[in-house]
Amino acid sequence: MTKPRNMVKHYLLLLCTILLLPPGNALLPSSVPGLHSLHIPQLHSCTAAIKPIQKLHSSSSNNVHLNEQDLLFPEKLNIIYDSKCSVCQWEVDYLKQRMHDLSTRTNSNKSNNLIRFTDLEANEGYNESDPANGGVTYTMGMTSFHAVKANGEILHGVPVFVEAYDIVDQGWIWEVTKWPIVGTLASWGYDMFAKMRTQLTRGSSVERLIEEHYTRRSKIMMQNNDGVGEVCEPCQNKIASEENEGR
After folding, report:
1. Exposed, middle or buried, 208 (CB in 10 Å: 0-12/13-18/19+)?
2. Distances (CA, A) of 74 to 68, 70, 130, 143
3. Residue 13 near residue 180, CB atoms below 8 Å
4. Residue 205 in contact with residue 199, Cβ under 8 Å?
5. Exposed, middle or buried by CB within 10 Å (0-12, 13-18, 19+), for 77?
6. Can you list the alpha helix ranges (DSSP code H) found in the chain?
7. Nearest CA to 171 among 180, 181, 162?
8. Helix (H, G, I), strand (E, B) or coil at 195
């Protein structure tokens, strides 16, 4: 009885996500009040200077069986998420509960370590240079749900859910997305949701949150004076402006 009930719940969530989204590539002003009137400054040049990595796409040639010593981490998947987003946190909590249930059912602690979770908003900060994060930057993680497989393959969007739920023995929930039409709709729906996710769950645009993140990081670099690198001029001006406003 639990399986059909969970299936209905997840399909309803997926359907609501698609149906509640406005058509087109941009949000309508009536969908999120004040969204278009909000001034979004350009990202600092230090943000743009981050080198993008070459993503690995799912294909038979990329599904290489690596030796254990060649894997990035012992878990099967590293999900990179925004803990300040209630929807994202709900997904993470659900997957953690599933791993716990599997561990209890199989009397094995290994089921508790199937998936690792990396928080973009952790108090200690998000480490973009950690090999386990596969080169996924804060900007990438905030604009779309990302995950890194142990072999280094990077997933984003709907494939993250497909992979994660398959790992916790609930792959049947997302099996329907393998149908061409449903898969296309699911991907479109997720992309639209991703554009307004932070506006709905955190009350701020993703552009503003990204800029604030890199501004804080640049400020810490300046205070530490650890020689990691120079802070770009726009960052310095932004920090000085914020300090003047706070006086």
Report:
1. middle
2. 8, 10, 15, 27
3. no
4. yes
5. buried
6. 2-19, 45-48, 86-106, 138-143, 158-167, 180-201, 206-224, 233-246
7. 162
8. helix
Contact 43, 207 (CB under 8 A): yes
Per-residue confidence at 56, pLDDT binned at 50, 70, 90? very low
In the chain, the amino acid numbered 7 is M
User: Which 3 state secondary structure label does DSSP give 117?
Assistant: strand
* Tokens describing residue 27: 């949000």
pTM of the model: 0.66
pLDDT band at 31 (very low <50, low <70, confident <90, very high): very low
Average of per-residue pLDDT values in the chain = 75
Q: Return the residue matching tokens 């099996």.
A: 175
Strand order of the sheet with strand 146-149? 115-119, 77-81, 146-149, 154-156
Expressed in percent and rounded to 5, the helix, strand and coil fractions of the chain are 55, 5, 40
Residues in the chain: 247
